[in-house]
Structure formats: C-alpha cells, structure tokens
C-alpha cells in the first residue's frame, strides 16, 4: 500500500466522528448494533493523485462477511439500472470471459449468466452455492484470463485504488476491458448529501480522476440518476493518476442536517431505506434528538435485524405502515426510489425524499 501524503487540518473537506465501520452490516440485537465498530471521517484531496479520500481510515476494523447486506436488486428501479448496465456492456461480452471482482450476492453476475455469458465472481460476503462464485477476497496471487473485468462498487472500499488496479492488471496478464462503477462525488457535493459519506468508503471519485488514471477510456458517464460514475476503459492503459483540479465541498454542505432537525416533520416519522444513506441519516438525526420511529426496507435479509450505529430495528413495509398513523412522514433515503415508494404507500402518508 502506498504511503499517505500528509494533509493540513485546513485542507480537510469534511469531518464526521463515530460513523459505523460497516453501515450495511446487520445485527441480531440492538446491543450488538450499538456496540459495533466505528471510525472517524476526515476527507481530503490527495495533492499528488487528486483522489479524495478519508485520511483517518483504518482498514483493520473493516471485516466483510455474510452479515453484510447491500443487495439493492429487489427494487424495480435498481433492477432497471442493472439491466441498462448489462445492455451497455453487451457488445463487450459476446463470446468472452467475464470476471466480476466484488460481486456481492451475485445478482448482476446471474443477470449476465442468464444472457448466456461465461461468468465468474469473487466476493467474501457471497451467500450461496453457485460454483462460479468464490467466497473470498481477490488477492495479488490470483491469475485469470478475463476479456472483461467488472468492478461495481468496489474501488470506493480500497485504500489504494490505483495499486489495486495494477494488481488486477498483473493477475490478468496486463490487459482486458474493465467496467468500473462507483459513487459520484459531484452528485454528493451538489446535493449536499452528507448522509452519502460513509466510513467504509475510503475514496470518493470524480470523472477527472478516471481521466487521469486511464489513457484509453471507451465510455464514461453518470448513471443511476447521476449518483454513480460508470467507466469502461482499457486496463493496459493504466497510469499513475495526477491532480488536475483542487476540489472543495459547498460551504453549507453539512448544514442541511441542522435544517432537517428543524423541519416540522410529523411525529412519528419513518426512514425508508435501511442501507447506506438511510443508516447514516438516521444515526445523525438520532444524535440530534430526532430519531425515526421506524426504518423500513424491502430486503427480507434486513427485516427483523438492527442497523449499525443507531441500533434501529428494520421493519418490513407492511409492518411499519400498519403501525404509523395516517399522515405520518416517510423520508425516502434515496430519491431514485421515491416514485416506487410513493406508489407503495398510497395517499396515507407524506412522502419526502432527502
């Protein structure tokens, strides 16, 4: 791992203390959730590479296992995003070998397999018995001959993304097409989405970073409502990234937390989305004395379990909606899901996106 370039306190872009180490890990008891590992965030831009990263990150407290639940494919909106991604990659996949590193529970990999493609996956948090998926981490000793490598929502978790990419290139003989998808820092900044900054995301990416990292990019676009950056590039064109532009977050980036705590939200209110955004929003609202009455999720693997940080019990939609009074506010953690959630609750509740 490369050394960390020293950063002055005045160059810190954003700071937060005591965030869950793994905001998507689920716990069987409230006590275990409250006692789970936490870490601090100090975002700064590397003056050499231009990468925005958490300089307070300690990888030792990050352990992925089957209790890590980040499956989004149960949502029709996210499923549509996966299909669109597969459609755009289709010309690169026909008759070729595909490896997805960090394939999660394997949903996207299965989608590609159903289209007739030759696929393999690697992920330590995988649950299941698909022989095409290895339940482990990618290591520098891996060797494979893929034509297309898929890295969806992996690089934001890797302390040295450029070094990690170099290891992948070495493992694959130095060449391949690669598709990378990561959260978009520009979207986070423009939407003042402080609840979209997590401890386990050590890196925050811009298009400019990838333009510096690769000499040959086939396609780069914003996707999933602008929240993600999708990059298709030539792995053999990797080069050391260099700073192109100094970045700053808006001066009032985190002030919306104060605004939310002052908004006259109907009591009780619920947060819909027991994933990253919803977990962080609920935690910081609880610290401000405005804890939600419920946190809702459609993922059965999360229901009846507790989220990290605030320790809230995750409810199935039917259970939470039956308990809430008519007119209660439902805060949608991800605006991409607003329409489907509003349709699901009918007119009984006030539905607002963060």
Automatic annotation (TrEMBL):
From the UniProt record, give one GO term of the biological process aspect.
methylation
Origin, by domain of life? Answer: Bacteria
Record key words, sorted: Methyltransferase, Transferase
Quote the SUPFAM superfamilies the UniProt record gives. S-adenosyl-L-methionine-dependent methyltransferases
This entry's Gene Ontology molecular function terms read: methyltransferase activity
Q: What is this protein called?
A: Methyltransferase domain-containing protein
Query: Which PANTHER family does this entry report, sorted A to Z?
Result: TRANS-ACONITATE 2-METHYLTRANSFERASE-RELATED
Which InterPro entries does the annotation name?
A: SAM-dependent_MTases_sf
